[in-house]
């Protein structure tokens, strides 16, 4: 049953590489098309107007799929490790997987419902992706500590927990800023003396 997991290490690597490329490519196209302020625009703004909206939607959809594949692989690995040495309850591992998959669904919502077309749905998907993603990383960090030192080094556990802590600390400011800042002006004109208002903080929230 677990034979398909062999050689799956490329999946998380592909997830990070593909997702980074999605943000960079859509940003470059949006800036070259004059659709956004080049100085740290809100990520969603770089995927709102054609042609970058098509690129953003396609690539983020695939990122959501890769994220789900990564999380399911991790779930099966922990499940297998539990058979050798008790790490955590199966329910704890399952809850972590479900939250991760819900976060991936949120990514899909962000990709398919543009910021200006259906803002409520888009923002809801972004919130779902971010909050569920943060809780998922926190639960996985706890599992890592429980599996140390047999399956993880202590330094790996510390790194994972540090990432989780930073992500958790960003939740409240992200929600606050997202609720206070209005939609960035699109079709930015570089000849204007005053720059349009940019959503600078916690742009990873959507």
TrEMBL record:
A single GO cellular-component term on record: lysosome
Keywords on record: Membrane, Transmembrane, Transmembrane helix
- Subcellular localization, per the record? Endomembrane system
User: Which species is this UniProt entry from?
Assistant: Camelus ferus
Taxonomic lineage: Eukaryota, Metazoa, Chordata, Craniata, Vertebrata
Q: Name one Pfam family in it.
A: Frag1
- InterPro entries per UniProt: CWH43_N, DRAM/TMEM150_Autophagy_Mod
Say where the protein is mainly found.
membrane
What this protein is called in its record is DNA damage-regulated autophagy modulator protein 1 isoform X5
Q: CWH43-like N-terminal domain spans which residues? A: 8-181
Q: Topology versus the membrane, per the UniProt entry? A: Multi-pass membrane protein
Q: Name its GO BP terms in alphabetical order.
A: regulation of autophagy
* Family note: Belongs to the DRAM/TMEM150 family.
For this protein, the record's PANTHER family field holds: DNA DAMAGE-REGULATED AUTOPHAGY MODULATOR PROTEIN 1, FASTING-INDUCIBLE INTEGRAL MEMBRANE PROTEIN TM6P1-RELATED
Q: Which domain of life is it from?
A: Eukaryota
Chain ranges passing through the membrane: 12-34, 54-73, 94-113, 125-145, 157-183
Q: Kindly indicate whether the keyword rRNA-binding belongs to this entry.
A: no
């Amino acid at each position: 049953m677990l034979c398909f997991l062999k050689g799956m290490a490329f999946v998380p690597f592909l997830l990070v590489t593909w997702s980074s490329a999605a943000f960079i490519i859509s940003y470059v196209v949006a800036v070259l098309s004059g659709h956004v302020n080049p100085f740290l625009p809100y990520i969603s703004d770089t995927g709102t107007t054609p042609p970058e909206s098509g690129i953003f939607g396609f690539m983020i959809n695939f990122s959501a799929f890769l994220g789900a594949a990564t999380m399911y692989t991790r779930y099966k690995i922990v499940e297998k490790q539990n058979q050798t040495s008790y790490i955590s309850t199966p329910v704890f591992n399952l809850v972590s997987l479900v939250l991760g998959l819900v976060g991936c669904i949120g990514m899909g919502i962000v990709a398919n419902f543009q910021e200006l077309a259906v803002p409520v749905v888009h923002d809801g998907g972004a919130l779902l992706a971010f909050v569920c993603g943060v809780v998922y990383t926190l639960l996985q960090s706890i599992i890592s500590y429980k599996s140390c030192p047999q399956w993880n080094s202590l330094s790996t556990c510390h790194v994972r927990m540090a990432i989780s802590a930073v992500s958790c600390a960003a939740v409240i400011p992200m929600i606050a800023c997202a609720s206070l800042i209005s939609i960035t002006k699109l079709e930015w004109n570089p000849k204007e003396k005053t720059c349009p208002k940019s959503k600078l903080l916690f742009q990873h929230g959507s």
